[in-house]
Amino acid sequence: MKIVAIGGEYFAEGFSLAGVNESHVHEDEHLTLRLLTEFVESGDVAVVLISEDVAESIRFELNKLIEGKELYPIIVELPDAKGPIKGKEDPLEEKIKRAVGIDITLKEDS
Amino acid sequence: MAEKFENAKPTRMELLKIRKRKMLAKNGHELLSEKKDALINEFFKVLDQRKELKYELDELISTGYRTLQEAHMLMGGREVKSISEGAPKMEDLDVVRDSVMGVRVPSFDVEIPDQKFYGYADTSVKLDESVENFRKVLKAALKLAVVEGKLDKLADEIEKAKRRVNALEYIYIPKLDATITYIERQIEEREREDFFRRKKIKAIMERREKDEAS
Fold first, then answer.
1. What ipTM describes this predicted complex?
2. pTM
3. Cβ–Cβ below 8 Å for B141 and A47
């Protein structure tokens, strides 16, 4: 199975240097969504590395896309070259809440 | 009080059967809630792992970006881009089957390429560093992917277990209880009827005997 990266120019280039199987520069939401849909449907992509800002811009569609998926692909959101987005909601938080029934905030101070 | 089962027949056989079913349901309930607790335990463990990994990854990726930007400045974006396009791709992943307490979780072995793929002559040392750094980032990101995938599946499984435990506890077992009381009452009622009937018959017979005697 493959590993792919979608994100800003530095993001895509960095992962391309590291040797991911496919790496795409995010141009606009439609293209990125089409790529993501292809990845999910192909069944041959294990991990999608996506930059936070891109994921944020297509949050709704992204959630719909990966709803009820099998094990793969795993979508991992990583900070963009501008650095991590402050105060961004953790995509896993919703899951945690539903599973455990309590609210856990992941903060660095501890 | 919960509703009884619609098709419950008020017989002794049925009563025995339902009592057996209740025992089974109770055992099942106990086992399931133990499973749920164990899953939640595991979930928190993995959650801690994820927190650490994420922290580490944020550090790594920001150094990665910094060196890459420096490489851009020293060599020009176009040059770096063309080198990045020629970078060797990693082998396709081998996906390994793995499970945590019967839950299928993702797992794979990765081999990140580590050979040089460009000439030294006109590249900067910063490019070497960026390649090095991003390989580290990729490695950490894949670790994070496994952990996040695991959390995702565990969360689904916890939800399922919770729903089952609740269904047993609040619907199925109360229903069985209600059915048991219903059948017991029906049987008692029938016994009383029988008793009364016997008494009545006895009275009639005695009266007849008296009539014949007189």
1. 0.81
2. 0.78
3. yes
